[in-house]
Amino acid sequence: MSEAEQSLFDVRLAKLERLRSRGIDPYPHTFDRTHSTAEAAALLETAEAANSADAKTETVSLAGRITAMREMGKASFIDILDGEGRLQALLRKNTLGEEYEILKDLDLGDWIGVTGPMFRTRTNEATIEVQQIQVLSKALRPLPEKWHGLADVEVRFRQKYLDLISSEDARRVAKLRSRAVSSIRRFLDDRGFMEVETPVLVPVAAGAMARPFITHHNQLDRDLYLRIATELYLKRLIVGGLEKVYEIGRVFRNEGVDFYHNPEFTMLESYEAFADYNDTMVMVEEMTKFVATQALGSTKVDFQGTEIDFAPEGGWPRLNLRDEVIKHSGIDFLEYPDIDSLKSQMAAAGIDVSQQASWGGLMDKLVSDKVEPHLFQPAFLVDYPVEMSPLAKRHREDPRLVERFEGFVAGMEICNSFSELNDPVDQRKRFEEQEALHKAFKDEDMDRLDEDFLVAIEHGMPPTGGMGMGIDRLVMLLSGHRSIREVVLFPQLRSR
User: Is 378 exposed, middle or buried (0-12, 13-18, 19+ CB in 10 A)?
Assistant: First the structure.
């Protein structure tokens, strides 16, 4: 704490002690709030519609944080902020008497409760005429000097509570995220899916191509991993006869931090027996339409100045991956099945291939560089090479491909889906190939062999359509933000 900050802290401490010396508890146990600020304002509008422009409501009790104080002789105006918004309070000395003196020991950032009727001032502002005031929490640290519009990104993300106090948009996004997640659950529950929970600490970090976080269990004396996906456990439940399951939960990947990635993020994964990736595409379209409508009241959103429609006429286009790669790069990846030839073609197309070693890694780079930037409106890329998809079922018409799609919006992947591989012999072979690739290309992330999962599907898994969707990225799209840190309440940041 700097000398200036300590000085302000000491001034507030002195005010705290003055409140206590007057018999005022600055941190009471409770407060009987009757209305939010929004409810109180609506109550006034109802009274005005029924009576006159000079109407007053019955007595209400509001509570919130002080965000502005304006003294005008023997009266003062205070703005209070609660979870619904701001509202003005009028405090008169002749109404409050000695209680009015409490204002001398109040500061911006303090929490107060006020009681009185609602009325409208001559400036047409809904206001509570305070008849009683109670201190609810004395703030010892002041709000930042420019709390009403924090520009310091470090402060905004490291001290999220200050961002929520100061930014209406931060509060909007937090509420929108909650509505979006609730509507996803409602959509899936109404379709007969069952929400389940699977382990976070796992013995094998499988189900995706990502580097895991490692921890140690002292009692068992074994290393465990934070899950990188929920897929393999959810598919065990399909084997067990739970035909429609989903999980919304945190997954953890020990990867870089950028606009689209946070080391811990929220993933929806769903699995439906007797379905394939075509059925799942339809479900994704219907679900995103439902979520957008429930969260925003419309399927159309303004994203960075461009309108995105989650329910376009004719549905989301199904774009063949091979055709799109040829269209945007001139490379037919099926004609270059080995690493050297594909790398040569990519380099000739101006793609930096210095960081990729495996064929699958090269393909991922090719798609992300040449195809994804063109996918702004909602679209599905379909039918991927086997090498990129060790958990997907081979394509029924071309065994070099798998039945997989990824959904893209605004150039971002928001979901990934397969006709799930349920052939245990093929699955074991693919896992073994991933293990060999892991040894050969240690700098690239590969899926891992999970023997317990293989034993499970050897007991028989029905045809299944599976899907994973990044909740954070969906909320980014719905809220109009390009950075994942804007939609995660507590993003991971570098050390100071």
Answer: buried
User: CA-CA distances (angstroms) from residue 412 to 172, 218, 473, 483?
Assistant: 22, 40, 8, 11
Other C-beta atoms lying within 10 Å of the C-beta of residue 440 = 11
Contact indicator for 213, 264 with CB cutoff of 8 Å:
no
Name the token pair of 294: 């429930």
DSSP annotation of 212 reads: P
- The neighbouring-strand residues paired with 68 are 79
Percent of the chain's residues with pLDDT above 70: 96
Q: What is the DSSP letter of 142?
A: P
From CA 44, how far away is CA 128, in angstroms rounded?
A: 10
HSE, side-chain direction, 13 A CA sphere, residue 429: 10
* Beta-bridge partners for 266: 250
Exposure string of 324-348, with b = 16+ CB inside 10 Å and e = fewer, is bbbebbebebeebeebeebbebbee
Q: Judge whether 235 and 206 are in contact, CB under 8 Å.
A: no
CA atoms of 455 and 340, how far apart (whole Å): 36
Of 170, 386, 186, residue with least CA distance to 295: 186
| Domains of the chain, first to last | 3-143 (2.40.50.140), 165-316+378-486 (3.30.930.10)
In sequence order, which ranges of 22-167 are alpha helices (DSSP H)? 37-50, 93-96, 153-158, 160-166
Give me the residues paired with residue 115 across strands. Answer: 61, 132
pLDDT digits (tens, 9 = 90+) for 115-138: 999 999 999 999 999 999 999 999
Structure letter (DSSP) for residue 9? H
Q: Which of 151, 307, 177 is nearest to 248 (CA)?
A: 177
Q: Which helix (H) or strand (E) holds 404?
A: strand 401-409
* Structure-token pair, residue 51: 């009576």
pLDDT in tens, 289-298: 999 999 999 9
